[in-house]
Amino acid sequence: MSKEKMEIGAISKPRFEFRSFGRCFCEAEKRMARLSVPVPEKVWERRSSEIYIVSRTNDINNTKIRDGKMDIKTYVQSVDGLEQWNPLMKGEFPISASVLSNEVFPAFKVGNLPELGKETYSLEEFLNMIDEHPDLQAVRVEKIRYGYMVNDTICETGEVYINGAMVKTINSESTEVEDIKKTIRDLGLEGVENINYLQAIKRVIGMTKKSLAN
Length: 214
Fold this sequence. Notes:
Blueprint: E1 16-22, H1 26-35, E2 46-55, E3 61-66, E4 69-79, E5 82-92, E6 95-96, H2 97-108, E7 120-121, H3 123-132, E8 136-150, E9 153-162, E10 165-174, H4 177-187, H5 197-204
Antiparallel strand pairs: 1-5, 1-10, 2-3, 2-8, 3-4, 4-5, 6-7, 8-9, 9-10
C-alpha cells in the first residue's frame, strides 16, 4: 500500500507528531530550512493568537480557542515516542450550556464544576468561569510559525509567546512514523524530548515542575 502524501493545510488521516520547546534549536532550524522542498507562500509565515485552557488534572485533552471557536483534541497513542491526537469536539461561542456540561468541562477532568443556569454562554462568561476555578487556567498564546516540508513530513519552526514569555518550538508531523524518525535524525534532534503544547504551557506557567528541552 502506498503511503499518504502530506500536504500542508490539507486534511489527512490522523498524524503522528514530534514537537519540542526550548530556548534555541538553531542548528536544527538551519538544517530544516536547507533540507525543505519548496512550500506554498501562504505557510512561509503564519501568525495567530489563541487561548489554551489548561487543567492541573488533565494531560490528554488539549483545548484551545481561536477566533471565537473552540477546538479540543484528545491523545490517542504514542508510537516510538511520537504522539497521535484526534479531534474530540469543535464548538463556537456563544456556546450552549449542554455542550459545556456534556463535552467541554468533562474534558478538563476536574471536580467542583460551575452551575450553569443559562442556556448559552459567551466567550467572556466562559473565561470568567475558568478564572474562578482553582484547577483551571486560561493562557494566552501567540504564535509566529514558519512552514517547511522535509522527508514528506509537515514541519515548522516558530516563536511562541506563552502569557508573554517567548519560547522556541520545532516540529515534524506525518501519518508515517518512519518519515518523522528520519527527519528527526536528519535535523540532529535525536534525544530531544517530545513536548506537546499542553505540556509546554503547563511547564512555562509553573503548573508542573519540569523544564523545557533546553
